[in-house]
Design brief:
69% helix; single chain; mainly alpha; 12 helices; 253 residues
């Protein structure tokens, strides 16, 4: 997805090759060795990762650490020919981008980008940093941008991961997020709010700087939202049809 965004937004003419390399590498590495249980679980269950990283973005810190464990192997170090000074810049940049994918920081990163977007300055390091963070965030949660035939099977996998986590949380007596509870969540209810309140505002903000994504990525999100709204209507109709007539009034109420 990042490769596509770079070319769609013509970033190769707006950003340095160094920054483009950081974006591509951070995207490849941003979920390395993911255990399948999110930060909330790590913290509530007091896992080794949560303890190691003091409850501060334990997963993202772990992904970044694994990234540089791999790069520390001579046969894997794609930055082996850069100077020590430049490698330090690479390390700082990649870690910052991977940490930006923690959804707990979503509002903070989005608002910082929106402050700059209408007077964006490609010569400003702060503006470029905000742009890089918003781009990796877009790519991290971009599944619904893709055609439905590709995105929906991945959504099924994600929901199963959520449900497995909530099952484990219930078994261990830990708090359960409502959006992960298999007894409360359906595919359309999971996606409608996420697309409407997270994805569309995020990609809309980027489209203010790169209007060319409105007719592609943002429009795909709108179509996905309509798809799941129709699915919800169909599910509701099936439930209503299956409900005995004498109990429908209480359900409507």
């Amino acid at each position: 997805m990042m490769y596509g965004m770079i070319h769609l937004c013509n970033l190769q003419e707006k950003m340095s090759r160094f920054n483009l390399g950081l974006l591509i590498t951070a995207c490849i590495c941003h979920d390395l060795d993911h255990p399948g249980y999110n930060n909330a679980y790590q913290i509530n269950a007091k896992t080794e990762l949560a303890i190691r990283y003091n409850d501060q973005s334990p997963l993202e810190n772990h992904h970044a650490a694994v990234c540089f464990q791999i790069l520390s192997q001579p046969e894997c170090n794609i930055f082996g020919n850069v100077s020590d000074v430049d490698f330090n810049r690479v390390r700082v940049g990649i870690i910052a981008l991977i940490l930006a994918t923690d959804m707990a920081r979503h509002a903070e990163i989005l608002e910082k980008f929106k402050v700059n977007v209408d007077h964006f300055d490609y010569k400003s390091e702060d503006h470029i940093t905000a742009l890089k963070m918003i781009l990796i965030k877009c790519c991290d949660i971009s599944n619904e941008v893709r055609p439905m035939a590709e995105s929906e099977p991945w959504l099924d996998c994600l929901l199963e991961e959520y449900f497995n986590q909530s099952d484990r949380e219930k078994a261990e007596g830990l708090p359960v997020a409502p959006f992960m509870d298999r007894e409360k969540v359906t595919k359309p209810t999971a996606q409608i709010g996420f697309i409407k309140f997270v994805l569309v505002p995020l990609f809309d903000a980027v489209a203010r700087l790169f209007p060319q994504i409105d007719g592609t990525m943002v429009e795909s999100l709108r179509q996905a939202q309509h798809h799941y709204e129709r699915m919800k209507l169909e599910d509701d109709a099936k439930k209503a049809h299956a409900t005995p007539p004498d109990k429908r009034g209480s359900i409507v109420a």
